[in-house]
Design goal:
The chain is an alpha/beta fold and 589 residues long. It has two domains: 329 residues, ABC transporter type 1, transmembrane domain (ABC transporter transmembrane region fold), CATH 1.20.1560; 232 residues, P-loop containing nucleotide triphosphate hydrolases (Rossmann fold, 3-Layer(aba) Sandwich). The strands form three sheets. Strands 6-9-10-3-11-12 form a six-stranded mixed sheet, sandwiched between helices. The chain is elongated, with a radius of gyration of 36 Å. The relative contact order is 0.08. Bound molecules: adenosine-5'-triphosphate (ATP).
């Protein structure tokens, strides 16, 4: 129930601006319903007039006028019904299209404000599915179900009013079976819902399996495990089939059962109407017309019940979609201090002061870590895998906030610095370089779109990638994307370095690639890194000896603690962990 309440709030938020649209829709629905429920009256009248005409013929009186008039009215009412439906459909399509569009925009905007923690703790596929299946489900429900449900509710109310207006006894006969129909609908819906939920779960698991297999396809092929992959896939597929089948059986029963009830009801109405015509005190021709009217009503009356029931599952998945979008919107934004300090370069340096930090509350990763880098100096972070090097990088750029202690720029806590200003001053080169869809020029100027060609060329030259780009047929205008890039892994990193050089960051965070690249590319990367580090304040997660040796200070981390720090010579003299690693072939990775 709470979920439905939240979903209503969610939909209201996105739809409240379309008050005029909804007013038009509701008026169009009321009008079209009126014409639709009024039409059978003219049908009945036409039958009555036809019967009168036939009876009149036998008596030598022949006047078709009233019959024709009733037929024209019937036609007019049918046309007006369709016009009303058309208008309401167009407006509902407009409202649902625009509100889904705004939801998508809002969701994407929200993603840009969210913390790295959210992205670290959610699968890419899961985040993506909020844009695809969740929004699709909402859009389908709004597009197809909203107008239909409003129309059906109006229809039901209209028919009830009309029936009681026309003939109270026959009206009671027609509505008498409603409780049975509603009860059957509730049972079938709850059964359907159970299996639709199960089906969604199983589809989720199936997608997860396929996702994992696609990303691990190379490992599967290398190990010749294609057969095993299919074996693992089949049970998931079978579970989806079973759940889908059962769901479909129950939801498929809804329409025939409702149709059957409607037909039985029609027969009862005809029977009772016939009795009324033969034994009642109204004219037989009038009674005959009335039977025709109620045959129409009894069929129309059942339509909304079965339609609303069959649209319910659509709403159910839309409510689930709204819940998942709400969850995303409820996630905290990155915290930006009010009137945060604007950085203007670095005067002294950057420091970590007695930092304690954990990704989860009860699992501290960094324990009392302190270190500093003076302006223009380079610190190399070394340590075994899992020792906390990347975590320190995450704190310097304020991807995460420390639990205790502080990260400071010129003595100012990063939590007091305006986030945009902080990020403008920090440049990051990660191991996994990302290529965005666009030209090579777009990719290099990503962080500074207004850069001139000369600036871009200069950055690419410093990153040692200019000559390669110029060798391509379309040079800087070559179209690339992450899947379809002309670059090798090493070259991707050079592009990433060029991108960072162009933004001219005050503090550089660099994660040296460990991926195997050929020696020529490796030499190029090394040179590019030297260029980008030159004269800049930098933290480097260093894997290569040459990088470590060129550092002003080496900080050795182990199990989230700084165990040694100093220059290469000092650390060798200490004969501690670093010296041990250095002498045992220097294995830091
Ligand atoms: N997003 C995260 N959520 C939870 N725990 C994490 C997360 N990222 C890292 N950790 C944990 O924090 C610890 C330190 O990881 P970190 O990535 O900082 O190590 P590292 O020294 O950079 O390792 P490597 O050299 O392998 O990259 C590890 O135990 C890791 O499991």
């Amino acid at each position: 129930m709470r979920e439905i309440g939240k979903a209503i709030k969610f939909f209201y938020h996105y739809m409240k601006r379309y008050k005029i649209g909804f007013t038009v829709t509701i008026l169009a629905i009321i009008a079209s319903t009126y014409f639709q429920v009024k039409a059978p009256v003219y049908m009945g009248r036409a039958i009555t007039e036809l019967a009168n005409y036939v009876v009149g013929l036998s008596r030598g009186v022949s006047d078709k006028g009233s019959f024709m008039q009733a037929i024209w009215m019937l036609l007019l009412f049918y046309v007006l019904t369709v016009v009303g439906m058309f208008i309401s459909n167009i407006v509902v399509t407009y409202i649902s299209g625009n509100s889904t569009n705004r939801m998508r925009r809002g969701l994407f905007g929200k993603l840009q404000r969210m913390t790295i923690k959210f992205f670290d703790s959610h699968q890419d596929g899961d985040i993506l599915s909020r844009f695809t299946s969740d929004l699709d489900n909402i859009s389908n429900a709004l597009n197809q179900a909203l107008g239909e449900i409003l129309m059906n509710i109006a229809m039901m109310i209209g028919i009830i009013i009309m029936m009681f207006h026309e003939n109270v006894a026959l009206a009671w006969v027609t509505v008498a079976s409603t409780p049975i129909a509603v009860l059957i609908a509730i049972v079938l819906i709850s059964k359907t819902r159970k299996y639709v939920d199960l089906q969604q779960d199983e589809v989720g698991k199936l997608n997860g399996y396929i996702n994992e297999q696609i990303s691990g396809q190379k490992v599967v092929i290398t190990n010749g495990l294609q057969g095993e992959a299919i074996k693992g896939f089949l049970p998931h597929n079978e579970k989806v089939r079973k759940a889908t089948f059962k769901g479909q059986v129950y939801s498929g029963m809804l329409f025939p059962v409702m149709n059957g009830l409607s037909l039985v009801n029609t027969a009862i109405v005809i029977f009772f109407g016939g009795w009324l015509a033969l034994n009642g005190d109204m004219a037989r021709t009038t009674a005959l017309g009335l039977v025709v009217v109620f045959v129409q009503y009894s069929q129309q009356f059942y339509q909304p019940i079965s339609q609303i029931s069959s649209l319910y599952s659509m709403f159910q998945v839309a409510i689930t979609g709204a819940r998942r979008l709400n969850e995303t919107f409820d996630e905290p934004d990155e915290i930006n201090p009010k009137a945060g300090k604007q950085l203007s370069g670095l005067k002294q340096g950057v420091a970590l002061k007695h930092v304690h930090f954990g990704y989860q509350q009860d699992n501290e990763i960094l324990h009392d870590v302190s270190m500093n880098v003076e302006k223009g100096r380079m610190v190399a972070l070394v340590g075994p895998t899992g020792s906390g090097k990347t975590t320190i990088m995450n704190l310097l750029n304020r991807f995460y906030d420390v639990d205790k202690g502080a990260v400071t720029f010129d003595g100012v806590d990063v939590r007091d610095i305006d986030l945009k200003s902080l990020r403008e001053h920090v440049g990051i080169v990660l191991q996994d370089s990302v290529i965005f869809s666009g030209t090579i020029r777009d990719n290099i100027s990503f962080g500074k779109p207004e850069a001139t060609d000369e600036e871009i060329y200069a950055a690419a030259k410093q990153a040692n990638i200019h000559d390669f780009i110029m060798g391509l047929e379309k040079g800087y205008k070559t179209q690339v994307s992450d899947e379809n890039s002309v670059f090798s892994t090493g070259q991707k990193q050079l592009i990433s370095i060029a991108r960072t050089i162009l933004t001219n960051p005050t503090l550089l965070i660099l994660d040296e690639a460990t991926s195997n690249v050929d020696t020529v590319t490796e030499a190029k990367i090394q040179k590019a890194m030297d260029n980008v580090i030159q004269g800049r304040t930098s933290f480097v997660i260093a894997h290569r000896l040459k990088t470590i040796l060129s550092a002003d200070k080496i900080v050795v981390l182990k199990d989230g603690k700084v165990i040694e720090q100093g220059s290469h010579e000092q650390l060798l003299e200490e004969k501690g962990f670093y010296s041990e690693l250095y002498h045992s072939q220097f294995v830091f990775e």
